Amino acid sequence: MNSCKVIEQVVDKGLCIGCGLCVSACGDNTLKMELSEYGFLEPRQVNSCGPSCKGNCLSVCPFNPEPNNDVRTETELAKTFLKDSKKHNDSIGKYINTYAGFSNEHRANSSSGGVATYTLIELLTRKEIDYVISVKDVTASSAHYEYAISSTREELLQGAKTRYYPVTLAGVFDKVKELDGKFAIVGVPCFIKSVRLAQKVDPILKDKIKFLVGIICGGVKSTFFAEYLASKTGVSVSEYSKPEFRIKDESSSASDYSFGCLDKNNHQNTIKMKMVGDMWGTGLFKSNACDFCDDVSVELADISLGDAWIDPYRSEGLGTNVIVTRSLLAEDIIQKGIESNKLTIEELSLTRFIDSQRGGFNHRHNGLGFRIKKRRNEGLSVPPKRFERDELTFLLKLIHLMRMRIRQKSLKVWKETKNAEQFDREMQFSLNVLKKLTKLNQYQKRYSESGAIRALIMRKVNKVFK
Ligand SMILES: Cc1cc2nc3c(=O)[nH]c(=O)nc-3n(C[C@H](O)[C@H](O)[C@H](O)COP(=O)(O)OP(=O)(O)OC[C@H]3O[C@@H](n4cnc5c(N)ncnc54)[C@H](O)[C@@H]3O)c2cc1C
Ligand code: SF4
Ligand code: SF4
């Protein structure tokens, strides 16, 4: 069987994120999405590439190692798709405005402030679109969650809340061409990029996909993440169902949410995430591709939504969104929502927006150059990236190295143990080393900051007495 380009150049090189658009772009039944041994969705080659193969699979892939110049990075693609955005910032790309707030109606039943659900319902009500492709609960399948189509408010409401679980657009994306009408699609940055790449290749998709809702993302988790959390609640991996990743505590802070799942008797077992430990800054159960992603704020979406991890918003247990508008339609939805009192939203400065995603920017922009260098030293290629400078201190290099090790080790250890207690024992040493290095880095930063302030005061004092 002759080898498919996307398998050879992306999947086999460990950079697939599972968006599934290569499967749709191929159209020749050459590829099929399957769960990998480490719980990630990836395409598998099931047939030989046909004589008519034009390599479309690679041209829609967000991790294509050699894209054409006009789609080289998010910056070039934004020039085609975000003509309404007049402002530009190196960290967040093209934009119209930045906000923080929530939907008065949908906040309680959402992950954050419910602005994603509000925006999608508004698009349907205004008849801007006919269908929404979002991630929904699929009780009939062992997958728990899948991308599915909604055309009514009721159907759409089943798709509220974010699921830290692998999902793919393969299959459902074909409906864009099959059905009459306009579409909105919800996705994390790399999925939104693959949709834009598909729109660039195919004018029908450019016309039919009217709006993209971007979900700010700190990394996709393997199915092992949900299994591990189920095991932490005391439910066996083979018996858990309906994982809920963001159960809010109204009386506490936004970050004090719980994971919950049903056991075999349909009883919900829950655990506070703060009892589990840091699941995001450590790299646990994360995809390798995420370590080579530099789009923190979904630069190619019409609207980008995340959590407001800054004061005063983070003290509100019901959750608050940070919002970036990048098209006039998105801006109008927010403005009209404020005017009609459906949205409680205020403007947020760009600096405060960036502060709300500080961890994401530190890891994905500042740390990327080091990881790229390391990967190239191993003889592996990296798609073009905009943050290639490696300026990390020795200590930060160790921290990034440790995160990479923990990511890899967590997948191997869970595959063998499938039991939270045993897993915690085997991961403890590495996680402790990372914790100590991180503490040391915080001390070093504080010390150098106070050193810089001391030097500044001394300079001022010297000036006065000169
Ligand atoms: C994998 C992942 C990582 C994230 N990391 C961060 C982060 O680092 N920082 C941050 O600020 N925010 C992060 N978020 C986003 C955050 O959890 C909220 O989703 C976001 O603030 C929108 O909240 P909302 O209340 O407006 O959404 P809701 O109104 O609850 O709607 C959520 C929407 O997201 C869709 N959705 C659910 N799961 C997925 C999925 N896996 N992929 C694509 N779409 C999905 C739903 O179908 C729904 O349309 C992450 C989300 C995901 C899925
Ligand atoms: S990232 Fe998407 S397009 Fe690229 S190989 Fe994986 S599934 Fe295919
Ligand atoms: S971190 Fe980047 S590559 Fe990973 S899932 Fe999120 S958007 Fe995709």
Number of helical runs?
A: 17
Which strand-content bin applies to the residues? 15-25%
Please state the average pLDDT score: 95
Helix content: 25-40%
Q: What structural category arises from helix and sheet content?
A: alpha+beta
Oligomer: single chain
Number of domains: 2
Main sheet characteristics: 8 strands, mixed
General shape: globular
How many distinct beta strands? 15
* Rg over alpha carbons: 22 Å
Ligand names? flavin-adenine dinucleotide, iron/sulfur cluster
Instruction: List the strand order in the largest sheet.
Output: 7-6-8-9-13-14-5-15
End-to-end distance? 81 Å
- Low-confidence parts, pLDDT < 50 over ≥5 residues? none
Tell me what the structure shows:
The chain has helices at residues 5-11, 21-26, 56-59, 74-81, 115-125, 153-157, 175-178, 189-201, 203-208, 223-232, 273-276, 328-339, 350-356, 358-366, 368-377, 394-417, 420-465, and strands spanning 31-35, 41-45, 87-89, 93-95, 97-103, 131-138, 144-150, 183-187, 209-215, 241-247, 258-262, 268-272, 303-307, 321-325, 343-347. By secondary structure, it is an alpha+beta fold. Strands 7-6-8-9-13-14-5-15 form an 8-stranded mixed β-sheet, sandwiched between helices. Strands 10-11-12 form a 3-stranded antiparallel β-sheet. The protein has a two-stranded antiparallel ribbon with strand order 1-2. β6 (131-138) and β7 (144-150) form a beta hairpin. Bound molecules: flavin-adenine dinucleotide and iron/sulfur cluster (SF4) (2 copies).
